[in-house]
Amino acid sequence: MRELINKLKGDKGIWSFVALLGLFSFMPVFSASSNLAYLGHGTGNTLGYLVKHFAHICIGFLIIYWVHKIPYHYFRAISKAGLPIVWLLLAYTLIKGTVIAGANASRWIQIPFIGLSFQTSTLAAIMLFIFVARYLSKSRETPITFKSSLWELWTPVFITLMFILPANFSTTALIFSMVLMLAFVGRYPLKYIFFIIGSGVVILTLFFLMSKAFPESKFFSRVGTWQSRIENFTTDKADEDDYQIEKAKIAIASGQIYGLGPGKSVQKNFLPQSSSDFIYAIIVEEYGLVGGLGVLVLYLLLLFRFVIASHKANTLFGKLVVIGLGFPMIFQAMINMAVAVELLPVTGQTLPLISSGGSSIWMTCFGLGIILSVTKKEEEIAQEKLDKEKREEILQKLIDRELEADLEEADFKNVNDNFDTSDYSITDNSKNPMNAVLK
Predict the structure, then answer these.
(1) CB count, 10 Å around CB of 253?
(2) What is the DSSP letter of 348?
(3) How far apart are CA 324 and CA 67, in angstroms?
(4) Can you tell me whether residue 33 is helix, strand or coil?
(5) Residue 224 half-sphere exposure, CB side, CA atoms within 13 Å?
(6) Nearest partner of 363 among 344, 379, 350, 348, judged by Cα
(7) For residue range 47-94, what is the model confidence (pLDDT) as tens digits?
(8) Cα dihedral sign, 98-101-107-112
(9) Which of these, 330, 337, 349, lies nearest to 252 by C-alpha position?
């Protein structure tokens, strides 16, 4: 076990908190999957869902391990070359996307020969964040101008968002806000950021107006859902989303301080998406306020490690990559928790590393692997610096020892040269041998 831990490079704090979240996820997923088991095969046996989640988590940690071995600066070129490929995947998803669990949003594609579904927007978000970090960290002889950045930075950003928007407004808003945050941290001119925000509002308004003009189009089929969710959040109008929120609040209220106990949730049998979008409500019901705050603290500690990792990074690209990939994970977790307690409208965002779902877990782990690659590089630099200092210290000791030996030899030679033995000679040519002593 110790040998395995020693092979894990990078920030040990991030490794620890990610492992704790992954291990904790098994009990809530095992418990909350009962309604899916009843709907799926009518037996209520959730063992198959637990095994599936276990496989997803194991593959996810293998992804972290493989990716964190790759030098993070390789992703500069990967993001630039991979973004057009992501656009093709997003376009294919928009046209041929698969409906999952009755959802009317085409957010997934079916992977050929494997039969697994994959949400392409999660991969697009990672590629886009790295692409933005790459642009902001480039060395320039002249300052950034809005004209140059509009083509090199914001055009790829808006192309990516426009492919995601028709099927997933919440993910589009999350990605856009995180890109703006990354631009602000990367010291992109503030006046340009405000202009980009205004442009985004205009484009979104035009999108809504087009949805009213072409209500039957497939590309605008989700607009009615977004509108109803916002209306339901701001008014008392009854809707399916209100049913989910009502059951989530009942689950949270039932948990009280210490919860009903692992596996003893009642609302998991009535709450749709209890193992994914609303799993936090099940956690609070079974583990109480203590469990809910414990999960929140784990995410905040993970955020703290991201801040430290970003601060320690020696390159601007490394700093921006950690912020661009780490902060959205925490922000997504906060959105999921806020929806469960009705602080935000229903969004469909999962709880990273805890909610069931393959592509969500794998892409989160992919981002974590890149972050750990950044911390591994800094760890290697720090270790190399420490080894260099030790080598210099040992070399200095050897030099000091040699100098000390040379000084001792020189002092001994000087003593011998200054020592007059003529008066102490025992050689005497006289016949009396005692004369040499008595002399």
Answers:
(1) 12
(2) -
(3) 17
(4) coil
(5) 12
(6) 350
(7) 888 888 999 999 999 999 999 999 999 999 999 999 999 999 998 888
(8) negative
(9) 337
